[in-house]
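Sequence design from tokenized structure. All designs in this work follow the same two-part layout: the structure record, then the generated sequence. An example of the structure record is given first.
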């Protein structure tokens, strides 16, 4: 169980709310209708390539925003179920200072570092099961 105080939880909820509002504003998730598609003159291959690159970048940003919003929703679910602030790997409390820096954290620093080293080793080896061999 998390060792966070009610005041700390309230502060973190406010951070999550602010982050969610910032993401929605940046992503344009407001309730405004989409502008009509403008008719363009025929373009050359360079224009089409630029448009395709912009579209891929926009798609990547939308996916990034969706993932951040999903992390916020997951953090709120952990709060609701009384698991927020507890590492999902070792069950130890996640320090308030870590949660202030990263309010959607689901692992303590030690477990997160271990996880990142595991995935770094797998990426270096090029094998998804490289860490299991060690």
């Amino acid at each position: 169980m998390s060792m966070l105080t009610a005041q700390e939880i309230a502060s973190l909820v406010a951070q999550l709310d602010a982050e969610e509002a910032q993401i929605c504003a940046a992503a344009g998730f407001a309730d405004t209708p989409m502008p009509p598609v403008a008719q363009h003159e025929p373009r050359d291959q360079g224009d089409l390539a630029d448009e395709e690159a912009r579209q891929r970048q926009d798609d990547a940003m939308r996916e990034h925003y969706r993932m951040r919003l999903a992390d916020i929703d997951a953090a709120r679910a952990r709060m609701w179920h009384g698991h927020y602030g507890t590492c999902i790997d070792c069950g130890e409390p996640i320090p308030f200072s870590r949660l202030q820096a990263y309010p959607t954290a689901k692992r303590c620093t030690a477990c997160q570092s271990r996880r990142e080293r595991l995935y770094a080793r797998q990426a270096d080896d090029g094998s998804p099961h490289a860490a299991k061999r060690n």
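The chain has a mean pLDDT of 85. We note this feature because it recurs in several other targets discussed in the main text.
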